[in-house]
Write a structure and sequence with these properties.
This protein is of the alpha/beta class. Helices cover about 45% and strands about 20% of the residues. The chain contains 5 helices and 5 strands; from the N terminus they run βαβαβαβαβα. α2 runs parallel beside α3. It starts with a strand and ends in a 5-residue tail after the last helix. InterPro entries: Bact_response_regulator, CheY-like_superfamily, Sig_transdc_resp-reg_receiver.
Length: about 120
């Protein structure tokens, strides 16, 4: 299936999302913040089918990571997730970099569906 990177500072959310996506047959790497995520993206030479990242994190937030990753690997697909309205508004300004913004909290069915749509090239409304 697909090679994914989950970037999330909350260990329980990170683990839950990774397990749900692994059960779908995806290969999933994880990172605990944007700086670690950007390092993983660089080490993989941008060869992730999709990066799913929280926005609000220590060290480097998901938006800064997305901008830096897109500068290095312009074709990289990035989906952000947040529980904060103001962060969602910031992310929605990143057309051409971020393909979707998922609201937290989410169900396992929601993350599976949104990731499936992102991998298929269908941008969620």
């Amino acid at each position: 299936m697909a090679k994914l990177l989950i970037v999330e500072d909350d260990e329980s959310v990170r683990t839950l999302a990774a397990r749900a996506l692994e059960r779908m047959g995806h290969v999933v790497d994880v990172a605990a913040d944007g700086a670690q995520g950007l390092t993983a993206i660089r080490e993989a030479r941008g060869e992730y089918d999709l990066v799913v990242s929280d926005i609000r994190m220590p060290e480097m937030d998901g938006i800064a990571m997305a901008i830096a990753a897109a500068a290095l690997f312009p074709g990289l697909r990035i989906m952000l997730m947040t529980g904060y309205a103001e962060q969602r508004e910031r992310a929605e300004e990143l057309h051409g970099i971020v393909i979707d913004v998922m609201q937290k909290p989410f169900t396992l069915a929601e993350i599976r569906d949104r990731v499936g749509r992102a991998l298929a090239g269908v941008v969620a409304a």
